[in-house]
Amino acid sequence: MVQRVTYRRRLSYNTKSNRVRISKTPGANLRLLHVKKPAKGPRCGDCGSALAGIPALRPREYHRLNKSQKSISRAYGGSRCSTCVRSRIVRAFLIEEQKIVKKVIKAQAKK
User: Fold this and answer.
1) pTM of the predicted structure, to 2 decimals
2) What string of pLDDT tens digits covers the 111 residues of the chain?
3) Count of beta carbons in the 10 Å neighbourhood of residue 81
4) In sequence order, what are the residues at sequence separation of 6 or more whose Cβ sits closer than 8 angstroms to the Cβ of residue 29?
5) Collapsed DSSP state (helix, strand, coil) of residue 71
6) Cα distances (angstroms) measured from residue 8 to each of 31, 32, 37, 57
């Protein structure tokens, strides 16, 4: 016969926030341990890939980290991945180059 176990908190339904696992105590009793939700971690806003260098924590636990642990020291650090930042920089550079080329062509056409 197995030992019956009950929830240790007031919520009595098997929901996502009320996950438990059975643990045996040193006194050989079975006891339910409430399991925290797994953290997904921050993701890139453009491509959706996980951001490297930032720990995957539950939202409330980020307030314990200092600023350097929550972001990366580069443009868009902690918001966009390096690949997307590189593509943004290249795109901006090419657009500026295109503007200059248009201006040169326009000047040559006037002559």
Assistant:
1) 0.72
2) 789 999 999 999 999 999 999 999 999 999 999 999 999 999 999 999 999 999 999 999 999 999 999 999 999 999 999 999 999 999 999 999 999 999 999 999 987
3) 20
4) 3
5) coil
6) 9, 7, 17, 24
